[in-house]
Amino acid sequence: MTSSGECAKSTSVIAIWTRSARLAMALSVMLWSLLIGVHTIAAQECPLSPACDAVFDSVVIPNSSKAPSRLVHSEDLSPDGLFMDEAVHLTYNRDWSAGSGWLRDDSSQPTADLDFESYWVGAMEFNVDMSPAGSNAALRPFGLYAKYDGSITQLNIGSSSYAPGAAGVSLSGGTGSLSNLLGITDQANRSVHQNMIAMIRQNGTSSFAWRSGGVPRLNLALQPSLDANGFGNYGVMKFVGEWDTGEPILNFESTGIGSRIIQISPLGSDVAPRFKLMGDGAMSWGPGTSSADTDLYRSANNTLKTDGNLIVAGNFAVTGTKSAIVETKSYGSRALYAMESPENWFEDFGSGKLVNGEAMIRIEPMFAETVNVDQRYHVFVTATGECSLYVTDKGRDFFKVKSLKGSTDCGFEYRIVAKRRGYAKVRLSRSDDATE
User: Kind of pairing, strands 358-362 and 323-328?
Assistant: First the structure.
């Protein structure tokens, strides 16, 4: 058994539910009637009075004590008389007058309008319009527009039609010329990085976060335990997390060996790329003001080649040979190999002539600054005449050659060998990268 109070509550709930269901059914009938072209809606003439209820057939929407709710239907014939502009509105605190347009019952209260309209120009709209209390601002937080020929349908949420500088989303489809299928508008003047799009996993973390506000950020979390939304704002695109699955993080397939995978022109004044990475792996560099002048590419099996110069700022080590490629007249290109030594030796060559049995040779200044002449260096002399020679008095910038016997004015050639400056103590250093 239920009490009278409980019955009253149940009756109120049923009445509210029934009223809502009847309203939904009535709106469905009205919209369907417009779509199939059957005019079954009678316009309701509702005076600007809070006592007026919104009535459609047997459906009644009671008004509040502040401002009335209405079902408003309007129609207008096209200028050529062939089509009808039909509109159905479910409004609060808003009424339509053919002479004055939209009117507000109570200016101290907000207005709201859910409207469906079919235009004679071949399009329809379904919108939510509103105005704040005490303001005539026309705000549209939601709008759907579509043409009957299939050329465009567009859904807009937020954006400038809702409020100046508001964020918004638009979805577009159709056969016509569409500027964007998906458009996302950021809030005006937002400097704080907040998500525009987030792909959220079942555990609540984000695998992908597109953050905006100033500089756009694309963050990708490669592991389920990581949250792309929590990454610091450093880098326009960031990948975080171990990725040892054998799959590439970035994968380019079937692009063609002549495709430009990456091209960089950092200055607006650049007329040519400063760097290019091609589909076949070739890389090229240039000054930006003209075409590339340096490159690195695969020229043959197990071979990388550059047509420019190569400078190594660190150490350079090989497990094979180091050679110069020389083009010969009769035997084609031939490799000449560099002499190797356990220590870092530099050498220079020259010639001289004895005067009264001796000669002082000045060490070439530029060569002297590349070697350590404070430590012992070597000088080898070869006579070019009938004399026997020896070296004496080796200084920091000179050495002397004297005659032991024979001619006292014969000529000679010499070879000076000295330790490279800064590497005087290096000898047969171990290389961890060496292979057997």
Answer: unpaired
